[in-house]
Amino acid sequence: MSDHDHDHHHHDHDHSELSETQLRVRALETVLTEKGYVDPAALDEIVEAYETRIGPRNGAAVVAKAWCDPTFKKALLADASKAVATLGHISRVGDHLVAVENTPKTHNIVVCTLCSCYPWEILGLPPVWYKSAPYRSRAVKDPRGVLSDFGVSLPKDTNIRVWDSTAETRFLVLPMRPAGTEGWSEQKLAEIVTRDSMIGTGLPKQPGASS
């Protein structure tokens, strides 16, 4: 191991934004790095895999399948944990995963009172703002305002439902399938499903939009 500053990729984070778990992980990471057990770059690679590859890809595959397969969609809305388990390639999801469907009349947004209730096996690591108290309280009081901060404007007559995820029940939003995706394969559809669209603070990418 070289003796260069192993901390170089941490100090740009504002510690006030880090959760207790993240701080614990950071502390552990530092100890392991100092002992020479872990290469920080390799560790970053693992975190990156959970953040962007393993988690959201699983959720995106679930959404894409629901868009293509009416029987699966029905099963997902009836019992999401069971339906996701039938896909086999996704590791065990928290016991009570509930899928809520966006329609032209209803948009669902998920807030969380505890970090432990975020279904990271499906969605990847939670965004920092998702765990912040201001986001939670504002999403409950003014969901439309929060959505517009994320660049999502919905028709005035769309009802917005806010779901509070808990350790017992976690939510997966099934976004509406964008027009212009008729005949797409599940794999291609999965590529337009974003993590934020699965918690309701975003929408799937529009076909043809640059990624």
- Unreliable stretches covering 5 or more consecutive residues: 1-15
Please name the CATH topology: Nitrile Hydratase, Chain A
Order of helices and strands: HHHHEEHHHEEH
CATH class: Alpha Beta
Share of helix, binned: 25-40%
Can you tell me the CATH architecture? Alpha-Beta Complex
Number of helices: 8
Distance between termini? 37 Å
Q: Rounded to an integer, what's the Rg over CA atoms? A: 19 Å
CATH H-tier superfamily:
Nitrile hydratase alpha /Thiocyanate hydrolase gamma
Mean of residue pLDDT? 77
Morphology: globular
Described by strand count, sense and barrel closure, the largest sheet is:
2 strands, parallel
Number of domains: 1
Description:
This protein has 211 residues and is of the alpha/beta class. It has one domain: Nitrile hydratase alpha /Thiocyanate hydrolase gamma (Nitrile Hydratase, Chain A, Alpha-Beta Complex). Helix content is 40%, strand content 11%. The chain contains 8 helices and 4 strands, in the order ααααββαααββα. It has a two-stranded parallel sheet with strand order 1-4. Strands 2-3 form a two-stranded parallel sheet. It is globular and about 55 Å long. The N terminus is likely disordered.
